[in-house]
Design goal:
The protein is of the alpha/beta class and about 1400 residues long. Helices cover about 40% and strands about 10% of the residues.
Length: about 1400
């Protein structure tokens, strides 16, 4: 790929790289330029900015005010002004006349205030991401002058790769450091390692004239040319380690992700709460209820005006004012402002949880207090209003953009989240480093006489058919130093008299358990493990001198690069090198920290072997691919040569893949002596290796003493040809009575007169071998690594964090589905998911790997496999399916392996069983044919086991099982690399779950919704993960994405989710002795590079946690759920009360009564009294029960059935109070009428004074006796306030009876409720004083109202509360039924328990 010459000239190359100040200045300039471009793009789209065009859109569910509401309010204001101008003050009673003008002014002012607040909030929401980016830029610019980073500020260059942390070797301040990719800038000088993915568009510093000038784009793979890659050779060859190559970065890699965040900041789905509010107020209230009320009121008042002119008022009042007053409670007068304030305060309370946690909250554990295995309740933390007030003010003014309170609200998203998706594993869900899980070694047991005492059946000494699994009991005693306790081994006499007459080889597997509180601590499960201390000591010493030797790190890094690049020369090969810290195991065995002081390292050797030639490759691959996917691991081994300071003897200690290590071994250490490594021993070891490699990380260890010094101490990499089997020494097969392969007589036919001795610490031997090392050449170096002694094999695994397991259990109780998006293959992902407690068996996981294989390739693969298996006559048939990418498909390195090397397989292989195999076929074969059994039998057995038929070692047939001879170690490190069929097996199930992201939607639409219920997705990439998020959201899931804050590629997933939480991963360590604290910044000198990287990467996240912070996700969800439920309760009560005010006026018109309330009173009640009582419900404290309820999906929020239920419950709760209020109003008017006429007979309860003959004066109540109507209206308003206060008691705890939880727990309600009643009483008095006539003909007072009316009005709340509690009981039953249905849907069984 060529690049422009002017760009090459423009990019200046600094020999020692950029300085920190130059790089940060460049990064800040690039960010500022991108922000400027975005702002210019927004302002250049027309006269109005995008947020202004969508401000009051009817379809904008995020906004609480729409143009339709504004239009209705403006029409209301105009009609009120018209009614005011059409009335005469002398002919129209004063409260009604002046009230129209006051109403118009108040409504207009509230409309302006609402429009301003909504517009202000919309603008803050639209530019929220820009504002946050500017704040981040300001922090970055402030760091330019203060930064004092050095090489120790970064992670070490040899730090094991982790997919959760994106790093790149970069030259900064003249030093080569491990720089986060986020901090790379244009002009940076980077060192590309072979096989690594290019982080950004770049070009080489030194141009190769043969290749020409070229550039590489982001995502390309650096593929250097290896010398001798195409050469043909027959013997060992020395290869120079591949080094790095310097490239110049041509663009800043962070800018595209920043552009993505800016452009898609408003593409998140609408929250469930906003959808519900929009549906209720826009659809049901504005489109249905409001027109219905207007039409009904107009028709009723028109009929009254025509047929009962004496009982009505003036025509402007009948045709304008009454309709306008009736719909005032349904108009959004204070609700938009109230909604914004409630949401902002809710966000503040959720965020305040982070500041209100107790100091010991991080030590909380659900398993510490409960021994029966039940899930403990989450501790309740109630946020004080003082703690939330400052945050509330910052959120309200737009100064709290670090949490994205408007575009990704923690309140709305966490309060209704249904799927908690984690997209990263290592350092997030698991510990960053794998720990030893199993140790395998061989022992020899002497055959006992028939009457001899048999060993205990519980012994860990077991054959392959009876492998010890340990009983899980931990040692309680302190471990002592074992070095001084081991006595020297007895010499073996040369004449063979000391040899056992007969022995049996046993395989011992010791299980280890990981300490969940520390990253490396382990313990043996078997309390009797010390009996094997002789076998464990050489393994521990090998780990100390090779695996955890810090002096080997640099050369080992070159070896990993070289082995990987060598695998690229063969389309069927893949390079894997597995090595991680195991020094906790030697410490557990008893080695002291000073055990390495008696050695010093002289040389490091590495060796790898190519795949066989074309003639043997078909059979070779046929062996290997029964366990692995299409690619074959490249055998490799890493060795160190150390010299003991006391004796001066040299020792060679090796580790690597089991196939090559075993080829280099002809003996094994029994714990006391040496024994020949027979073919059946090799098969046992390889069987365990292949089984464990499918799900764990396995490494074989070997050793040999060097009796002759090596002439050179240079480190060396040796390449072996593919056909090199005859190059390894083949020990003779021992028979009874013959000499052993390790006897002194067998070494070059030389007799050793002296006995052989072994060191008590390192198994050092003085035995001589024939293959002495002389001159420095590849053959001699190869011979030095032959004739080794097999020590053992260690299986490592990533362990799940205890706090994550507890989190998953708590989320499940809250009906929040935990979904793991794994980049690894199906089998490896399933094993880890089971450690998390997820249901990950049959029918419980889906692979998102796309299928892009043609039918022709599938048929060719099937035909090829049919030909391979045609010679075997077994009662089953296998169909091999190859999934092959186009030729030229690129392989990429992956950091999922324990160390580094892994590939994206360009091909894969699947096996589908058409008929259940008969395992008994293997038992029919005689033992003498064990070494000659066909490979197809092994393939059949292994595949059948992987499909679930065999879960453990077959004890009776273990020694007879055909074992493989090649490594499957690349399966242990392949993650995103291949088809998810574990080990190359096609794991089809009867459920026929979809495979590939492109098949998810058709499956959901045409089959079932199982893809929305599975807890595990495998073979994920950032692109497929984001697409799956989108699918989940389309079907109503509310997605919370949790991922690493140090991974740049998480941006897309963070932007797609409803809310994103960034978690700081724990750093992987080369060794537990090498801390990573140097990468953590010091507050006195500013943030470290990793902290700055975290700030840049979490731009799209609402919450970001440091690893030092306690786990507070559950507390945030609890607080958000509680406040969301309070908002729902508040809006429910508010809507019910406002609807009651409207229905009260409608029924007064229907029953031919005068206006039960005037406009000012309606405005006062709907804008002051009811909102205050509604807001008081927000003071309900947090309760634990909120984490035991399902919130439901974000689809079909409100349906007709739900609205019908609401209507019935509303009518039962509020309509009786409406009836009582109208009755009291009629009784009051009757009492006043009796005082005017002095005759009760002429006072009709509905028509009033029947003798009053003036028209359009409300039977006299709108003329000379307006004071009586005003007193009655104020009395009704007071009674309504009184009733609303008592009804609100039932809303304090919607799903608990009043006697079970007293209202006093809500202190806010206890303050507001009496205050509102007092304010209403004060309004009563002031209104009477302002509008009382100066010289009335009849003076009316409150005492004129009969006692019966007051008794009815004030005793009704007693019955009202009883009715509400009875209705609440019905609500509780409906809620319980709904929760059972929701939990049933949530807990739909998958796997073997799922219905067919």
């Amino acid at each position: 790929m060529s690049y422009a010459k002017e760009e090459a000239a423009e990019t200046k190359v600094t020999p020692n790289g950029l300085s920190t100040r130059e790089a940060l200045t460049c990064l800040s300039s690039e960010i500022r330029l991108e922000l400027r471009r975005f702002e210019l793009k927004q302002t250049g789209q027309g006269f109005f900015e995008p947020w202004q065009r969508q401000l009051f859109s009817y379809n904008n569910a995020d906004g609480p005010l729409h143009w339709s509401s504004i239009l209705v309010l403006l029409v209301e204001v105009v009609l009120l002004l018209v009614a005011y101008t059409l009335t005469d003050d002398e002919e129209f009673y004063t409260p009604r006349h002046t009230g129209a003008l006051v109403e118009a002014c108040v409504i207009f002012l509230l409309l302006i205030l609402n429009m301003y607040m909504v517009g202000w909030d919309s603008k803050l929401a639209y530019y929220e991401m820009v504002t946050r980016a500017k704040d981040m830029l300001q922090q970055l610019e402030g760091l330019i002058e203060e930064s004092c980073w050095n090489e120790s500020s970064y992670l070490g260059r040899n730090t094991p790769l982790s997919p959760c942390i994106t790093l790149q070797w970069t030259y900064r301040d003249g030093a080569l450091v491990n720089m986060p990719q986020t901090l790379l800038v244009k002009g940076d000088l980077i060192a590309m390692r072979p096989g690594y993915i290019v982080p950004a568009r770049c070009r080489p510093v030194q141009v190769d004239t043969k290749v020409g000038v070229y550039a590489m784009n982001a995502g390309d793979q650096y593929m250097p040319i290896m010398d001798g890659a195409e050469s043909v050779f027959c013997g060992p060859q020395v290869r120079a380690p591949l080094g790095t190559r310097d490239f110049v970065v041509l663009e800043t890699p962070y800018i595209p992700y920043l552009r993505l965040a800016l452009e898609e900041s408003h593409n998140r789905p609408c929250s469930k709460l906003n959808k519900a509010r929009h549906k209720v107020y826009t659809h049901y209230v504005e489109k249905i209820l409001l027109p219905f009320i207007l039409v009904m009121m107009t028709v009723a008042n028109a009929l009254r005006f025509i047929y009962l002119p004496q009982t009505v008022g003036k025509w402007p009042e009948m045709f304008i004012l009454l309709q306008m007053d009736a719909v005032i409670p349904l108009l959004p007068l204070v609700f938009p402002i109230m909604w914004l304030l409630m949401n902002n305060y809710g966000v503040a309370t959720v965020l305040a949880v982070l500041n209100c946690l107790p100091a010991d909250f991080s030590q909380y554990s659900a398993y510490d207090s409960l021994s029966d295995g039940t899930v403990a309740e989450v501790p309740v933390i109630n946020v004080t209003r003082k703690a939330a007030w400052d945050i509330f003010m910052n959120v309200l003014h737009g100064r709290c953009t670090s949490t994205l309170p408007r575009t990704a609200s923690v309140l709305h998203a966490l309060g209704s989240v249904t799927a908690f998706c984690c997209i990263d594993k290592k350092g997030i869900l698991s510990w960053p480093n794998p720990t030893a899980e199993k140790i395998l070694f061989l022992t020899e047991d002497e055959d006992r006489a028939p009457d001899a005492e048999t060993p205990d059946s519980g012994s860990v000494m077991a054959s392959m058919g009876n492998v010890s699994e340990g009983n899980g009991i931990r040692l309680g005693e302190d471990f002592l130093e074992l070095k001084d306790k081991l006595s020297p081994l007895k010499p073996i006499i040369a004449d063979g008299s000391g040899l056992r007459s007969s022995s049996k080889t046993s395989v011992v597997v010791l299980d280890l358990s990981h300490d969940s509180m520390t990253p490396f601590s382990i313990e043996f499960d078997d309390p009797m493990w010390k009996r094997h201390i002789g076998s464990l000591k050489p393994l521990g010493l090998n780990v100390l001198l090779n695996t955890c030797n810090q002096k080997t790190l640099d050369f080992y890094t070159h070896v990993t690069d070289h082995v990987y690049k060598a695998s690229l020369n063969d389309k069927d090969a893949i390079g894997v090198v597995n090595r991680r810290c195991l020094c906790e195991m030697p410490k557990l065995i008893g080695f002291a920290d000073c055990a390495m002081d008696i050695f010093y390292m002289e040389q490091q050797l590495a060796m790898y072997r190519n795949l066989p030639s074309t003639q043997k490759r078909e059979k070779y691959l046929h062996h290997v691919q029964s366990f692995i996917k299409f690619k074959t691991p490249l055998p490799n081994m890493f060795s160190v040569i150390v010299r003991e300071k006391n004796s001066g003897m040299q020792q060679l200690l090796s580790q690597g893949t089991a196939d090559l290590v075993l080829d280099c071994c002809n003996e094994f250490w029994t714990g006391e002596d040496l024994a020949p490594l027979r073919p059946d021993n090799r098969k046992k070891i390889l069987d365990f290796y292949h089984r464990s490699s499918l799900t764990a990380y396995c490494t074989a260890f070997a050793y040999r003493p060097l009796t002759h010094p090596i002439s050179s101490n240079e480190n060396m990499i040796i390449e072996l040809p593919g056909d090199c089997t005859e190059m390894f020494p083949q020990p003779p097969t021992p028979s009874f009575g013959s000499k052993k392969s390790w006897d002194t007589d067998s070494f070059d036919d030389r007799r050793l007169s002296q006995a052989r001795y072994f060191s008590e610490d390192s198994l050092l031997s003085v035995m001589e071998k024939a293959n002495s090392v002389g001159a420095l050449d590849a053959a001699n170096e190869f011979q030095a690594q032959c004739n080794q002694i097999f020590i053992g094999l260690v299986s490592m695994q990533y362990q799940a964090k205890t706090e994550i397991i507890e989190l998953i259990e708590q989320l499940e109780c809250a009906c929040i589905r935990f979904v793991h998006f794994s980049e690894e293959s199906e089998l490896r992902s399933r094993v880890f998911s089971e450690k998390l407690g997820l249901e990950a068996g049959w029918n419980c996981h889906i692979s998102l790997l796309n299928k892009n294989t043609s039918e022709q390739n599938l048929q060719e693969a099937a035909d090829k496999e049919t030909a391979l298996h045609s010679q075997h006559s077994l009662p089953y048939r296998l169909d091999m399916m190859e999934l092959m990418r186009p030729n030229g498909g690129r392989k990429s390195r992956c950091s999922s392996a324990p160390d580094i090397v892994s590939l994206v397989d360009t091909t894969s292989q699947q096996v589908t069983f058409l008929e259940k195999p008969n395992i008994n076929v293997l038992e029919a074969l005689p033992d003498t044919e064990a070494s000659e059994r066909s490979d197809i039998e092994l393939q059949m057995l292994t595949q059948y086991e992987t499909m679930g038929a065999i879960d453990e070692f077959d004890e009776s047939n273990a020694n007879e099982t055909q074992q493989m001879t090649l490594s499957a170690s690349h399966v242990t490190s392949s993650s995103r690399s291949s088809t998810s069929a574990p080990g190359g097996f096609y794991m089809a199930n009867r459920a026929k779950l979809p495979r590939g992201i492109e098949n998810i939607r058709p499956h959901i639409e045409q089959v079932d919704n199982v893809p929305l219920l599975v807890p595990l997705f495998t073979d994920c990439t950032p692109k497929t993960t984001r697409e799956m998020f989108k699918i989940m959201q389309e079907y109503g899931e509310i997605v919370c994405c949790a991922g690493s804050s140090l991974r740049l590629h998480n941006y897309g997933s963070f932007m797609q989710a409803d809310i994103s939480i960034a978690l700081a991963p724990r750093f992987p360590q080369v060794c537990r002795k090498v801390p990573t604290t140097t990468a953590v910044g010091d507050s006195s000198v500013g943030p470290s590079p990793m902290e700055l990287c975290r700030t840049l990467n979490t731009l799209a996240c609402s919450v970001s946690f440091d690893k030092e912070d306690p786990t507070t996700i559950l507390q945030l969800i609890m607080q958000a759920r509680s406040y969301t439920a309070n908002i729902h309760n508040c809006c429910h009560f508010l809507l019910s009360c406002e609807l009651t005010l409207t229905l009260l006026q409608v029924f007064s018109t229907i029953f031919l009564l005068p206006p039960v309330l005037n406009g000012s009173q309606v405005l006062w009640l709907s804008c002051v009294v009811v909102p205050l009582l509604s807001v008081s419900l927000l003071g309900k404290p947090v309760e634990r029960d909120v984490m035991k309820k399902a919130t439901g999906k974000n689809s079909g929020v409100l349906n007709k059935k739900l609205m019908l239920t609401f209507t019935v419950l509303y009518m039962t709760k509020f309509l009786p109070s409406v009836a009582v209020t109208l009755t009291c109003f009629g009784l009051m008017l009757t009492a006043f009428c009796a005082k005017v006429t002095a005759e009760a007979a002429v006072c009709h309860p509905l028509y009033g004074n029947t003798q009053y003959d003036k028209l359009h004066e409300w039977s006299g109540w709108g003329g000379a006796h307006t004071e009586a109507l005003l007193i009655a209206q104020n009395a009704v308003a007071f009674l309504l306030t009184f009733y609303f206060a008592f009804i609100s008691m039932s809303y304090l705890n919607r799903y608990q009876q009043l006697w079970r939880r007293l209202p006093t727990v809500n202190t806010l309600w206890c303050v507001i409720m009496p205050a509102v009643v007092f304010l209403q009483l004060l309004y009563f008095i002031i209104d009477i004083m302002l509008h009382a006539p100066v010289a009335p003909s009849v003076k009316f007072a409150v005492r004129d109202i009969s006692i019966a009316t007051w008794l009815l009005g004030f005793l009704w709340p007693i019955l009202l509360v009883s009715i509400n509690e009875f209705v609440k009981r019905r609500e509780i039953k409906l809620e319980v039924r709904l929760q059972k249905r929701e939990r049933l849907d949530f807990g739909t069984k998958l796997g073997m328990n799922s219905p067919f």
